[in-house]
Specification:
By secondary structure, the protein is an alpha+beta fold. It has helices at 12-29, 33-47, and strands at residues 2-8, 54-63, 66-72. Helix content is 42%, strand content 30%.
Length: 79
């Protein structure tokens, strides 16, 4: 699994740091990717002032011969 976060706004560094810590564990334990992203978003909103700050995130997961690209925000990975 590889991921890149791009924080923005006054608390962008904190937002991207939290997502880098929380999202990998969520992706491993949640029943689907959407749930993992929503749980991470909830944790972010509890910890960081997200009114004018946040982060984009791109994650690439390798499962056997499959390459799965996930993102939130306007960042993308291209297969």
């Amino acid at each position: 699994m590889f991921g890149v976060c791009d924080g923005h706004g006054h608390f962008g560094k904190e937002a991207s740091g939290l997502v880098k810590q929380v999202l990998p564990g969520q992706l491993e334990t949640c029943s689907n990717y959407t749930e993992a992203f929503l749980n991470t978003d909830a944790a972010l909103n509890k910890s960081v002032d997200t009114n004018l700050s946040g982060t984009t995130v791109v994650v690439v997961i390798f499962e056997g011969t499959k390459v799965i690209c996930l993102n939130a925000g306007d960042s993308r990975a291209i297969k």
